[in-house]
Write a structure and sequence with these properties.
Malonyl-Coenzyme A Acyl Carrier Protein, domain 2; Alpha-Beta Plaits; four-stranded antiparallel sheet; about 50% helix; about 15% strand; globular
């Protein structure tokens, strides 16, 4: 039976993640990673603080490195090659590395640069964030967002992950409004995401230009 692998993007990080991986693969997650990054991957992942790990210039390299090492361990265990590799946003870089298109150090360096550019873009803007809308039709979500923008709001559909799952991004005030008013707006469930800014939105235009 064939299988595919899907790598995560930002929002899945947490302080303490990867403790077993650091113990088992300290060669990759230690000096090799730290030399590329210029900071201790182990300390940031295991000790945080949460705000530092959540910052996009740290979250992206951390998730990339741990996801890749976890993939290596899995592939060694199953001894088979997947039919496809894909990822959510940042996870696309992990997928390319897992597929052998780029090496680990090169992939980590690219992700670190991407994180720095996005952090600079986020730092130059007003507070922004993201949330996941679960269980509502895509069209209904887009209609709510369009109505908010017509009133001066800054909020957009950022990712259509699957039918009934839309990630939105925008100014924190607008995303907070969506979370608080979800039921009244006819949306089934809205979950705030642990991210540092409104990625995949017009707010990231400076990062796109830098890259």
């Amino acid at each position: 039976m064939s299988f595919a692998v899907l790598f995560p993007g930002q929002g899945s990080q947490f302080v303490g993640m990867g403790a077993d991986l650091f113990a088992a693969r300290g060669d990759v997650l230690g000096d090799r990673a730290d030399e590329v990054l210029g900071w201790s991957l182990r300390e940031v992942c295991l000790d945080g603080p949460e705000a530092l790990l959540t910052s996009t210039d740290h979250a992206q390299p951390a998730l990339f490195a741990l996801s890749y090492v976890l993939w290596e361990a899995f592939s060694e265990e199953v001894g088979r090659v997947p039919a496809a590799a894909a990822g959510h946003s940042l996870g696309e870089y992990t997928a390319l590395t897992a597929a052998g298109a780029i090496g680990f150090e090169k992939g980590l360096a690219l992700v670190a640069e991407r994180g720095r550019a996005m952090a600079e873009a986020a730092g130059s803007l007003e507070d922004s964030t993201m949330a996941a809308v679960i269980g509502s039709p895509d069209e209904a979500v887009e209609a709510v967002l369009a109505a908010r923008r017509s009133d001066g709001g800054q909020i957009w559909a950022a990712n259509f992950n699957a039918p009934g799952q839309v990630v939105v991004a925008g100014a924190s005030a607008d995303v907070d409004w969506l979370v608080a008013e979800a039921k009244a707006l006819g949306l089934r469930r809205v979950i705030p995401l642990q991210v540092a800014a409104a990625f995949h939105s017009p707010f990231m235009a400076p990062a796109a230009a830098a890259l």
